[in-house]
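Structure tokens please, single chain.
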Amino acid sequence: MNAPSPSPAAVALEPSAAPETASASLVRRPGRWIDGWNAEDAAQWKREGASVAARNLRWSIFAEFLGFVVWQLWSIVVVSLPAAGFDFSTSQIFWLISVPSLVGATLRFPYTFMVPRFGGRNWTVISAALLLIPTVGLAFCVADPQTPFGVMLLVAALAGLGGGNFASSMANITYFYPQRRKGWALGLNAAGGNLGAAVAQLVVPIVITIGAGVTLQLPLAGLIWIPLILVAVVGAWKRMDNLSSAKADVKASLAALRAPQLWVMSLLYIGTFGSFIGFSGVFPKLIADQFPAFSTFGVGSATLSLAFLGALVGSLARPFGGHLADRFGGSSITIVAFVIMALGALAVIVTLPLDNFWLFLGFFLVLFVASGAGNGATYRMIPTLFALRSGAADGERSPGDLGAQRTAAAALGLISAFGAYGGFIIPQVLGLSKSTTGTYTTGLGWFVAAYVVFLGITVAIAVYGRRRGVRI
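Here you go.
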């Protein structure tokens, strides 16, 4: 039996207790706690670190995937509410679409601190189990067309629990991987989660209509995910680990909040991830309003919506954005992403009068791909900027000292929270545009202007990096 090992707090407070010249062995304690983790230790990484990191990444992806599923359920359910007997105004529908993002973004702030407080594995179990609340709640409230709008809005807000998962998951995974691999690992983790939006929009229309006849089975939109949520809870409990070195504190978070880099990157992340999650949520509604004949397609006794394609291509593009950022620099890929996003939104505006669904779909998919790749690239910029801020000579490959790593981890969660507000802003802006002008064109024009501003900011960051001799 191993001798008693130091507590997680002691390990966190004495990061330099072991000599840096020797490769430390991992010490495992009850509760699946691991002491001595150092992802930058090449020998430790090759010996056992890589396999441990990969196992935790797989279960993190699965749990986060389900979080995004729950987070985006209302984006597709609202399209079917009129056929199920619900009578809500356009404004009310857009609130049901956007309030999960508002709550999810806000929850990301406390979720950022949950991994240091409880451990990555422990918090994944808890946060996955919490997803049972909004799924069961949705099943109950959509079963009765007489459910008051206030109750519907409350249950939709609870879906924000799924949005909070992202912050804790990304902050956790950043501790498991060395600096040179963070872009790919964080990209995979985020893409696996983002895919949940696409899968929800693909599966839900089929499930609620298959064999339903003239009556939609809306409660199934929530109930079908319960078995998978239980699998995620059990899998995380048995297969994930807690790292004693994954410690953030109030000091690290306050340091991140004081850093101008956090606020700049939050703005850029609203532009990339905010666009992805915002347009993912509103895309089914846009198609239903602009091209009702193409809103759904019959597949046997079920119906299929093509809205899932937007979230799908955006999700798949995200890890490649991170991978390209590892190779060419996050700012370079983000610049390209904003250029394409601005052109894609402009193309939608120009071609809308043509009333051509396939042009509309094609240009929106271009926008989704660019926003997905931009997600991964923008997120990759964060550790580099904070490493440079700590005085690291090469922030591209060096993560900086332990304090810098903790500040960067806190920043990752905080920036993800600010970025997620885009999921609230975009539906609200488009809803306002529709209610005041009768079209979505004005709202899309505002987004084009915003992307141009974000492009200018990213160019400035790239120039700053070049002056420091680093690709940011």
